[in-house]
Design a protein that fits this description.
This protein has 291 residues and is mainly alpha-helical. Helix content is 75%, strand content 0%. Helix 2 runs antiparallel to helix 10, helix 5 runs antiparallel to helix 12 and helix 6 packs across helix 8.
């Protein structure tokens, strides 16, 4: 969980570095051009899934990978690295909401209070990081909105992928939904390249490699392993410390200045997150899937 917090915590600042040279749709496409071959190699010999699983796996890839990651790239482009990092840490909040809707898991009054506190924190984070030395370090309303859209999409992607991998296996589902997402985004990337000239730098290449190998492939496989090894709310607590690494990296790389309003927003988000995923009731051993 600590390793995953470091890898995912650095993803927003690294994405910001990549966006300095590569536009959002193309950065996402390049990320999955790196990730998909690795998934296919890892899943070699285990790629067969039932035909009835194909529509769900394709829809999962298009929604979570194409839409979720594209929304994140646009969100990172429109927020400071610190603001983007802390807003992305709200993913477990949406996991709680989707668990209540999809899995019929009850939400307590304390958890609802945590949800509202976290959303108040998002507003303060957006206000508290509104100034920037250049366009890439500014936080805009559209940037915050894109980050929230990304958080919702990725949260649903995590819950749905956990259900599908339990039925059909981790590597086949990961490989095929990544391929589906890549196929869906390539035409969009081609259109973007036709509109925006590319200036590929070594920094951008390293950002793409990091996002493709560590965040997408290693991070997703580690996350899915954690979901099978421990209850989802425990695995989701990795988001508690993820912002620490992300905000520290943002301060070093971009000189983000974190004021009092931003700090209060962070406290509200993380405190609300703690309440939202808290559950005093023990989880029966049978409810935790094992390898």
């Amino acid at each position: 969980m600590l390793l995953l917090a470091v890898m995912w915590g650095l993803s927003i600042p690294i994405t910001k570095l990549g966006l300095e040279a590569i536009p959002p749709l193309t950065l996402t496409a390049m990320r999955f051009l790196v990730a998909v071959p690795l998934f296919l190699i890892l899943a070699a010999g285990r790629l067969r899934v039932p035909w009835q699983a194909v529509p769900s796996i394709v829809a999962l890839g298009v929604m979570g990978i194409t839409f979720g990651n594209v929304a994140q790239s646009f969100g990172v482009q429109g927020t400071s690295a610190s603001a983007g990092t802390i807003i992305s840490a709200t993913i477990p909040i949406f996991i709680v909401i989707f668990a209540a809707i999809r899995l019929k898991q009850p939400v307590t009054g304390r958890q609802w209070f945590g949800l509202f506190a976290a959303f108040a924190g998002i507003a303060l984070v957006a206000i508290g990081s509104g100034s920037g030395v250049d366009d890439l370090s500014k936080t805009t309303v559209s940037g915050v909105a894109w980050m929230l859209v990304s958080a919702v999409s990725i949260a649903f992607y995590y819950i749905w992928s956990a259900e599908l991998t339990k039925k059909y296996g981790t590597l086949p589902v990961a490989a095929w939904n990544a391929l589906a997402g890549l196929v869906a985004i390539l035409p969009l990337s081609g259109w973007e390249i036709a509109q925006t000239p590319l200036h590929i730098t070594m920094q951008a290449i390293w950002a793409v490699v990091y996002l493709g190998v560590l965040v997408t492939v290693a991070g997703l496989l580690l996350w899915l392993y954690l979901l099978r090894a421990v209850p989802a709310r425990i695995a989701a607590s990795v988001q508690y410390i993820q912002p620490v690494f992300g905000i520290a990296a943002a301060s070093l790389l971009f000189g983000d200045h974190l004021g009092l309003t931003f700090a209060v927003g962070v406290v509200l988000i993380l405190g609300g997150l703690a309440l939202a995923v808290a559950n005093k009731r023990p989880v029966p051993e049978a409810a935790v899937p094992h390898e």
